[in-house]
Amino acid sequence: MFTGIVQCQAHVVAAKLEDAVLRLVLSVNKNYLQHLDLGASIAINGCCLTVVKVESPAGDVVGQVHFDVIDETLALTNLGQLRPGHAVNFERSVTFGTELGGHIVSGHIHTTSEVLERIDSEDNCRLHLSLDQKWRDYVLYKGFVCVNGASLTVGELSEQGFWLHLIPETLSITNIGEAVTGSVFNIEVDQQTYTIVNTVQRYLQQHKP
């Protein structure tokens, strides 16, 4: 479980496909690798991955963390597009005492979204994202949505998807600041909204007059 508050950006050292499995190696400040065990869960661009190896050389500021990404995950997310040098959003899983500054995030990606338009102003940035029709019932005006692992608020709805209104802090901490037209982001809809909408729709379907 995660909060959608991105802790830092990690950078891709290697992304090699072997037998339909992506061997992904990331470099990250060692402060974020403390007490990190094999089998731990980390959200990478919002996708929950399992740590298979940790390298934290003495004297170095930066360590490396390794993941294996299976074909189903590659099909559902943007992780298959990663190349050496790319930045990814990094969040370790929630522990007791963690501040829940965003919203509860599972790390299970529902779909991907393409940037349709970017509008920058002095104080903020507006991003227009596409969204498959299948998922639009779960993305509400002023509701939560997790974009590349970042807990964000839906600013507007559109015929194609939705708009985000982003402050400079979000743009600097996350890789969303690098967005251009055509960029692809991982999307996880809010689990509470998903459950409520599905429950109501199922009830109405079962109790048609």
UniProtKB/TrEMBL annotation:
Gene3D superfamilies in the cross-refs: 2.40.30.20
InterPro entries: ATP_synth_asu-like_sf, Lumazine-bd, Lumazine-bd_dom, Riboflavin_synthase-like_b-brl
Keyword set includes Metal-binding: no
Keyword annotations of the record: Repeat
A Gene Ontology molecular function term of the record: riboflavin synthase activity
Gene Ontology annotations for the cellular component aspect, listed alphabetically: cytosol
Enzyme Commission numbers on file: 2.5.1.9
Boundaries of every Lumazine-binding domain copy: 1-103, 104-200
Keyword Disulfide bond: no
GO biological process terms, semicolon-separated: riboflavin biosynthetic process
Lumazine-binding repeat spans: 1-103, 104-200
TM ranges: none
Protein name: Riboflavin synthase
Lineage: Bacteria, Pseudomonadati, Pseudomonadota, Gammaproteobacteria, Alteromonadales
